[in-house]
Amino acid sequence: PLYSSAASDVYKRQAVALFVGCGREDAEPSNTESASHIELLTSLNERVVHSPNNPDLHVERGQLYYKQREYQSALTDFDEAIQIDPRHCEAFKQRGRALRKLERLEEARDSYQEALRLCPDDSGTSAGLAYVLHLLGESDAGLKIAATALSRDPKSCSLHNNRGLILLELDRLGEALKHFEQANAIDPEYHTAWYNRGQVHRLNGEPELALRYYDRTIQIEPTYWFAWANRGRVHYSLGQTALAIEDHSQAIAIRPDKYIEYANRGRRYADQGRRDLALRDANKAIQLKSCTDTYLARGWIHEQLGDKDAALRDCLHALQLGPLLSLIHI
Fold first, then answer.
1. How far apart are CA 178 and CA 90, in angstroms?
2. Reported confidence tier of residue 37, pLDDT bands at 50, 70, 90
């Protein structure tokens, strides 16, 4: 069909891979955890008022903000800790984490490097720096840092996971899998490694194994939205559309800000001929993020529903918006 052919050309020109996620985000706080967060934050605020020059309190509060995905607030506290104590290794490390979430990668690299200068044997810092270097296009340097740190600390789950993640994103799946398996051998409850094992098997065309590891991830951490999202993709690839819709719905319940999941669920609804639900989700995706991805997704839905003119309009609009961002699984 005209729309599918045009959209396919967009994908070819961009030369990109399917959205994988790869365990880059923390689990979503539950309602109970959110209530606990408010209590802890209130207590920490009082302690900071009484001891404003205690850098550890600022780091502790920053970590609490980070857990709630309030990254700018977290960064403010980590900066305050460093202003009080310019040699506070943990503050620099946590600052690097927050900056990575804010996509300020060069600053994240610099902060991790300072933390590593102050505490050269900290495995968590090495893991964080390795992955940021990869994101900056310095994958070889990242792999080298992770390998060197693993020679000192072979039982670091974060080092195995992040080195595996770099290898996964370089399409070196066999090497990546070994690191994820090693992380789970060290800590069977390390949910991101289980998830990433699922990613390896999904990319290897082994859907049943992928489902097994996504299920394990969800068993350990039910609020890890990536696992629900990619389990939905696998169910869909197996022709299990109803199960895919359930998985995407769960991902949306956890993270209602993720436009990708609305677009994917809309496509599944369109497969079932549920026009109103399909277009509702497609429009919600565009409302959340007006970009090439979401207009392509809505165009595909229009085509599935038989509206060729609307499909072509969305396709042409997508072509004007630039490169794909996250790659909706279509």
1. 29
2. confident
